[in-house]
Description:
single chain; alpha/beta; nine-stranded mixed beta sheet; binds zinc ion
Amino acid sequence: NIMDERAERVSDFDRAMMRRCLELASKALGRTSPNPLVGAVVVNDGEIVGEGFHPGPGQPHAEVFALRAAGARARGATIYVNLEPCNHFGRTPPCSEAVIAAGIARVVIGMSDPNPVAAGGRDRLQAEGIEVQTDVEAAACRELNEAFAHWARHQQPFGILKYAMTLDGKIATANGHSAWVSGEAARRRVHQERLAADVVVVGGNTLRQDNPLLTTHAMGDRNPLRTVLSRTLELPPDARLWRTDVAPSLVLTAPSADPDRQAALRDRGVEVVVLEELTPTRVMEYFYERQLSRVLWECGGTLAAAAIAAGAVQKVLAFIAPKIVGGATAPSPVGDLGITSMEKALALTDLKIESFAPDWLLSGYLR
Ligand code: AOF
Ligand code: ZN
């Protein structure tokens, strides 16, 4: 039985080392796009002799740092890495060759490389007579690099729609008041999501109504590119988003936008880019061109519906607060999708529910 054999060869220790790889990989959270988050650990005789992670594009890969740290103790050792070692000359040489040259005896891999250009390390290592185990802690490994996998497979950024709603499905009261739907724990979780994101997107309405800062706050010195989509540029002159000393801001607009308003924003250090067509599809293409691979939509219902309809949302993070505001005209998280029958409802898969007391986070994926 193949599963039994595999179970014997992959131990709890192996799984713990793979978890360590993910922890190391996460040190570069938000800094590696369009590259993946990768960590590596070298273990000789049950002892960790080297660790490393990939800091970002153009820099050495995780395996290289871990092998360097291990030095001669890599000979006969096991290397753990959450992504299949690359087998290509990209910005850096192939990790498969580095692993072979170091005299590694066993390679434990979390997931295969979804990038067809770099894949093949596993076969290369096996051909060399090295023992290889794959798919160790696979679910956690795939989740950490879900944006990279989508990017590599579809040549598109990965879109995440985040919203916070009351138990009766409202994101604000009827007059637009929304601070705050969810509590502190949930909001901290959102800051963490911003840490992992390359871009955060809102529309002009959210900017006018909520005046959000859209930073990671205390989560670290790194912030996503804070982006507003606005055709008219009718935006408050004193918005918190124009504090470009805190984090960079980008306004995407249409050719019809008033040049004086564009100039006023640029004077404040805001980057203004005119797109021929201000649609979620074009916006995602633009992000792809800029190699921004994880896009967090924190917009209101109208833009959220347009993003979903355009296929710009792959994952949904729905925070649910145990409160009721009522109101037939109070806004809800997703506007009109043109769905008239319940069988046509968009179904989420791979659901997860987590507690951020007093709120809940329900997350899942859209096909
Ligand atoms: C690994 N270990 O730590 C990373 C890998 O341009 P390059 O040379 O940086 O190559 C980027 C590709 O290599 C990237 O698309 C992905 O397929 C793989 N990334 N591979 O063995 C690492 N970051
Ligand atoms: Zn590599």
